[in-house]
Amino acid sequence: MQPLPGPSHALRAAKAAVDQGLEADLVTGPALERRLFTGLLATEDRELGMRSYLEAGPGRAKSR
User: Fold this and answer.
1) pTM metric for this prediction
2) Residue 20: count of CB within 10 angstroms of its CB
């Protein structure tokens, strides 16, 4: 099975949020999600995604 193209850091964080969040309570789950999300703000994926969104608008963003 081939990995999906796209923002690898975001996909990895989403998988971690689901995997770890299923075992968490209602206080720990959102804290985990917040930590993972803020960790994505400094990535190249965020920069490329935001640039693509601003240039092409929603739903037409291009992956690397």
Assistant:
1) 0.61
2) 14
